[in-house]
Design brief:
The complex is a heterodimer of chains A (497) and B (346). Chain A is an alpha/beta fold and 497 residues long. Chain A contains 17 helices and 22 strands. In chain B, a hairpin with a 2-residue loop joins β2 and β3. Classes of the chains: A alpha/beta (497), B mainly alpha (346).
Chain lengths: 497, 346
C-alpha cells in the first residue's frame, strides 16, 4: 500500500489524576475507513480531540501527508484538512439549513449575503451526499439523522482530507444509519481518510477496513477487519485482567418485588423497558455510553418526559402504580452529574443534607425547621458515612468528590427510601472513595433497600451487582445472573448475540 | 446510489401560526374598533397611528438585535431621554446647527450602547442588571444636564416634526426607511445571521466559529444607536424635551417586539413584518380606545393583557420546539452476528 497519509506517533496526554493517552501510535491511509474501538474511557475521544485540535497533547507527533504538523486549535486542524463530526451536533434550530452550514462563511456581495450563491453552494454540498433538501428548511423540522447529514455536509465544505466521525450513529434509526454508511463509502471512494470512532462492533465490522483497539490509553491491538473476529475485539477491549477476586460479594437476603417497571418508553430514546427490583437486591444496569441507561433512570424519576409505561412501587405492602413525577417520594436518586444536578454547591453541608427532608424536620405546630433536630440528624449521618469535614457549616463546594457524593447519600438516608437509583455513583472519585461508596451500596442492600446501579466501569458494576440488565440502543437486550463474566457483559452491551 | 429524500413541504402550520398569529389579533382589533367607532376606519387614522408609532418602530428595530441574541436592554428609554436632552441643549443653548446636533445625538446613543456592551461582554455582568444600571444612571445624568427642566426647540425646528409629503408625515417615511435598512442588516448581513445564531445558543455559535463577544457588543451598540435615532423623531414631534421623555419606552419596545413575534428566548423573529405588526397593533389599540371614548386608564390595562398573551405565546413556542420528524424504525435494531462469531458463555 502507498505511504500513510496520516501518522500519529507516540501521543501522550494526561489530565489531572488520569493518564488518558499513554503513547498511542497509528497510521491511516487514503481511501480507508479506520475504526477506533474501545470501551468508555479507553482514550478514543481524547486521541481524536488531539487530532481535531480540541486537546493539546503532552507529547507526540502528527504527520499529515509527509509533513510534521502542529495542531493547536480547531482552526489549525481545519487548515490541515482535518474535519470532525462531533457526537453532539452544533445545530441552530430556528435557522435554515443554509444558515447553519454557512454561518461563518457566507459568500457576500458588497457586504450583503449573496443568498443565491449561498443556496446554490448549499444544494451542491447536500447533493454530494445524495440529498435534496430545500436549503430554506428550518433545522428544527429535521430529524436527528438529517441534522447529522447537515453537520457532515458542513464538515465537507472545507474539502477535508481526513474526516473523523465520533460515535455518529448514537441517535440514528437503522435506516438513517444505512444512509450514513453509504455516505462514508462514497467518501472512501473519493480518497478521504475516514476515522470512525465506535464501541458498537457490528458497525465496525460493517464499514471499517482496519480496526485499532484502545484500552486505558494504549493501543492493545488491531489489524485489517477481515482478519478479526468479534471475539478478538471483545477480548482486546476488556483485557485479560480478572477482577472478580478483588471484591468478595456476600450473598444477600433477597425479598419481595418492591418496584416494577413495565413497557417504559420514550420515542427514539428508550423502548419497552421492563424490569423489577426486589428488596435487598442490587441490580446493575450496564450498557455503553449512549445505550440509554441514564435515560431509563431519568424517565423513572420523571426528569424526562415519557411516552408510555407503568411504574409500580410497593406502598404499604401493595404494589401501586406511581406517576414518574411522584416517584421521588419513594426513590432516592444519585445523578450522573452530582455537581450540576445533585448539590447546591455554595451552600453548607448541613443545608445540602437536610434538603430533601425539610418537612420531617419542621415542628409539628409551627412550620419552622427544628434546628436542634436538624443538627442532630445531619451529624448522625455524617458519622455513619464517615464524611470528612471541618464542620457541618462547611461549604459543599470545598469538599472532595467522594465526600460530596456521601453528602448526597446522607441526604437520602434521612428520608430512608426503599429504592435507590444510582447513576455513576463513583464517577471521578479516587480509589478509596470508590471503595467507600461500594461499601455503602452493600450496606444499603443488606438493610433491605433495592438498588439500581448504573456504571460505565464494568469492574465496578461487577463488584456490587446481584443481577445485570444490559442495554443497547435503548433496549434491554439481556438479563444476566451474578455469575456472568466480563466477556458476556461486554459482548451483550456491544450488540453481539 | 443514494435514494432521494423528499423535501419538506414549504408550508408549516405551526410556524405560520407562531409567526403570524398576531396578524389575526390585529385584524380582529381593527374590525372591532371599526364597528364600535364609525369614523375609526379611515386613511387619516392610519396615518396618525403610523405617525405616533414611528419613534417606536425605530427604537424597537435596534433593540430587536439584542433581544434576538437572547439578552435584554432596558436602558433604551433612558438613552432616548439622554440623547434628546443633549441634542436639545446643543441646539437651543449652544446654537449648534441642526445636522451637527443629529450627529452628536447619534454619538451619544452609540456610546451609551457601547457602555452596555462593554459591561455585558467584557465585565460579564448579567444584561438585565447591566442595563438596569445604565437605565438609572443615564436618566440621572440627563436630569443633571437639564436641571430636570423642559427644554424647547427653537420655533423653526418645532414644526419640522409635523411636515407632510403628499399627506404623509416625513417621520413615517424615515421610520420605514430605517426599518428597511435594519431588515437588510438582519437578513442579509453575516452580522444579522450571527445574531440569530447566538440566540439559538451561545455555545453552539461559539463552536461554529461565530465571534460571539464581538457580535454581542455590536448588538448593544446598535440598540443604543437606534434609541438615539428614535429620540430625534420624538424630539421633533414634541418640539421639546421633558424630564419624563422616554420613560417606559423600554417596555413598550419589548412589547412591540414580542407581539411582532421576536422571541425573548432568542433566535427568532423578523424586523419586517414583525416590528411593524407589533408597533401597529399596540398603537391601533391605543387610538381605538380613544375613538370609542374609553377611560384613559383602560389603555395600560388592555396593553398589559395583550403583552401577557404575547409572552404566553412566546413561552408556548419554546415548549413545542423539540418536536422533530422521526423516521420509524421497522427493522429490528439488533445486529446479526456472522456465523461462527457467536460468543459462547465461558
Amino acid at each position: 500500500m502507498a505511504e500513510p497519509f496520516l501518522k500519529m506517533v507516540d501521543i501522550k496526554k494526561s489530565f489531572p489524576g488520569v493518564q488518558a493517552l499513554k503513547g498511542v501510535s497509528f497510521e491511516a491511509y487514503p481511501g480507508q475507513v479506520l475504526g477506533l474501538v474501545g470501551a468508555n474511557g479507553a482514550g478514543k475521544s481524547t486521541l481524536m480531540n488531539v487530532l481535531g485540535g480540541v486537546v493539546h497533547p503532552d507529547e507526540g507527533q502528527i504527520v499529515i501527508d509527509g509533513q510534521l504538523v502542529m495542531i493547536n486549535s480547531p482552526l489549525d486542524a481545519a487548515r490541515n484538512g482535518v474535519a470532525f463530526v462531533h457526537q453532539d451536533l452544533a445545530m441552530l434550530p430556528t435557522m435554515s439549513i443554509a444558515d447553519t452550514m454557512f454561518i461563518t462563511s457566507f459568500p457576500t456581495k458588497t457586504g450583503l449575503i449573496d443568498y443565491k450563491e449561498t443556496k446554490e453552494r448549499c444544494v451542491r454540498a447536500l447533493r454530494r451526499l445524495g440529498f435534496n433538501f430545500d436549503p430554506d428548511t428550518k433545522i428544527r423540522n429535521l430529524s436527528p439523522g438529517d441534522q447529522q447529514m447537515v453537520e457532515i455536509a458542513r464538515a465537507l465544505l472545507s474539502n477535508p482530507r481526513i474526516i473523523i466521525f465520533d460515535e455518529p450513529t448514537s441517535s440514528l434509526t437503522s435506516r438513517e444509519k444505512e444512509r450514513l454508511f453509504d455516505v462514508i463509502d462514497n467518501l472512501k471512494k473519493e480518497g478521504t481518510v475516514v476515522i470512525y470512532i465506535s464501541h458498537l462492533l457490528d458497525e465496525v465490522f460493517k464499514i471499517c477496513d482496519y480496526a485499532i483497539v484502545l484500552r486505558n490509553g494504549e493501543t492493545v491491538g488491531g489489524g485489517p477487519v477481515k482478519g478479526l473476529t468479534y471475539d478478538d475485539i471483545v477480548r482486546l477491549m476488556i483485557g485479560s485482567k480478572q477482577i472478580n477476586q478483588y471484591y468478595s460479594r456476600q450473598s444477600r437476603q433477597i425479598g419481595d418485588t418492591v418496584m416494577q417497571v413495565e413497557g417504559l418508553r420514550r420515542k427514539g430514546i428508550i423502548e419497552e423497558i421492563s424490569f423489577s427490583l426486589r428488596k435487598g437486591e442490587v441490580v446493575g444496569l450496564w450498557g455503553l455510553l449512549g445505550s440509554g441507561r441514564t435515560e431509563v433512570a431519568r424517565a423513572i424519576m420523571g426528569l424526562d418526559p415519557t411516552d408510555g409505561g407503568v411504574i409500580r412501587i410497593r406502598i404499604n405492602g401493595k404494589m401501586q402504580p406511581v406517576r414518574p413525577s411522584d416517584a421521588k417520594n419513594w426513590i432516592g436518586m444519585l445523578t450522573e452529574n452530582r455537581r450540576e444536578e445533585g448539590l447546591l454547591l455554595p451552600m453548607s453541608v448541613k443545608y445540602n443534607m437536610s434538603l430533601a427532608n425539610l418537612y420531617a424536620l419542621s415542628g409539628k405546630r409551627f412550620p419552622f425547621i427544628d434546628r436542634k433536630l436538624e443538627n442532630q440528624q445531619v451529624k448522625k449521618y455524617i458519622n455513619r458515612l464517615e464524611i470528612k469535614i471541618s464542620g457541618i457549616e462547611q461549604k459543599v463546594s470545598t469538599l472532595s468528590g467522594g465526600n460530596q457524593q456521601k453528602v448526597i447519600v446522607g441526604r437520602w438516608l434521612q428520608k430512608n427510601p426503599l429504592i435507590y437509583l444510582m447513576d455513576e455513583p463513583t464517577r471521578g472519585l479516587d480509589v478509596g472513595a470508590k471503595a467507600d461508596i461500594r461499601n455503602i451500596i452493600n450496606e444499603l442492600a443488606e438493610s433491605g433497600a433495592a438498588l439500581l446501579v448504573i456504571s460505565s466501569e464494568i469492574e465496578e458494576i461487577m463488584s456490587v451487582s446481584d443481577r445485570y440488565l444490559v442495554m443497547n440502543r435503548g433496549h434491554i437486550v439481556a438479563e444476566l445472573p451474578a455469575e456472568a463474566t466480563k466477556e458476556e457483559l461486554m459482548a451483550a452491551a456491544a450488540g453481539v448475540r | 446510489m443514494l435514494s432521494k429524500e423528499k423535501t419538506q413541504s414549504p408550508f408549516n402550520l405551526r410556524d405560520f401560526l407562531f409567526t403570524y398569529g398576531f396578524l389575526i389579533v390585529l385584524v380582529a382589533v381593527v374590525i372591532y374598533f371599526s364597528a364600535a367607532a364609525p369614523n375609526f376606519f379611515s386613511l387619516n387614522t392610519l396615518i396618525l397611528v403610523l405617525h405616533t408609532a414611528a419613534p417606536m418602530f425605530v427604537l424597537a428595530s435596534g433593540l430587536a438585535f439584542v433581544i434576538m441574541t437572547a439578552k435584554l436592554d432596558i436602558s433604551v428609554g433612558s438613552i432616548v431621554y439622554l440623547a434628546s436632552a443633549v441634542g436639545a441643549i446643543m441646539i437651543s443653548r449652544m446654537h449648534l446647527p441642526f445636522p451637527l446636533a443629529i450627529l452628536v445625538i447619534l454619538m451619544v446613543g452609540a456610546l451609551a450602547g457601547a457602555i452596555n456592551g462593554f459591561t455585558v461582554v467584557v465585565l460579564k455582568v448579567n444584561p438585565l442588571i447591566a442595563t438596569l444600571g445604565t437605565m438609572m444612571a443615564l436618566r440621572g445624568l440627563a436630569l443633571q444636564l437639564t436641571n430636570s427642566m423642559v427644554i424647547s426647540l427653537p420655533q423653526n425646528l418645532r414644526t419640522l416634526g409635523n411636515v407632510r409629503i403628499g399627506g404623509i408625515y416625513v417621520d413615517i417615511i424615515i421610520a420605514l426607511v430605517v426599518l428597511l435598512i435594519m431588515n437588510l442588516v438582519h437578513t442579509r448581513t453575516p452580522f444579522g445571521r450571527q445574531v440569530m445564531a447566538i440566540g439559538n445558543g451561545s455555545e453552539v455559535a461559539e463552536r461554529l466559529g461565530v465571534k460571539v463577544n464581538w457580535v454581542n457588543f455590536w448588538a448593544f451598540v446598535l440598540s443604543g444607536l437606534m434609541a438615539s435615532a428614535s429620540s430625534i423623531l420624538l424630539l421633533l414631534q414634541l418640539g421639546a424635551v421633558s424630564p419624563d421623555a422616554g420613560s417606559g419606552y423600554e417596555f413598550s419596545a419589548i412589547a412591540t417586539l414580542v407581539i411582532g413575534g421576536v422571541s425573548l428566548f432568542g433566535g427568532e423573529g423578523t424586523i419586517i413584518p414583525g416590528i411593524i405588526m407589533g408597533g401597529f397593533t399596540l398603537q391601533v389599540i391605543q387610538a381605538g380606545l380613544n375613538y370609542i371614548g374609553a377611560s384613559v386608564y383602560a389603555y395600560p390595562f388592555v396593553r398589559g393583557g395583550i403583552i401577557f398573551v404575547a409572552m404566553f405565546a412566546d413561552a408556548l413556542k419554546v415548549k413545542v420546539k423539540p418536536r422533530v420528524k422521526m423516521i420509524t424504525d421497522e427493522e429490528p435494531s439488533l445486529p446479526k452476528v456472522p456465523p461462527g462469531n457467536e460468543i459462547t458463555p465461558a
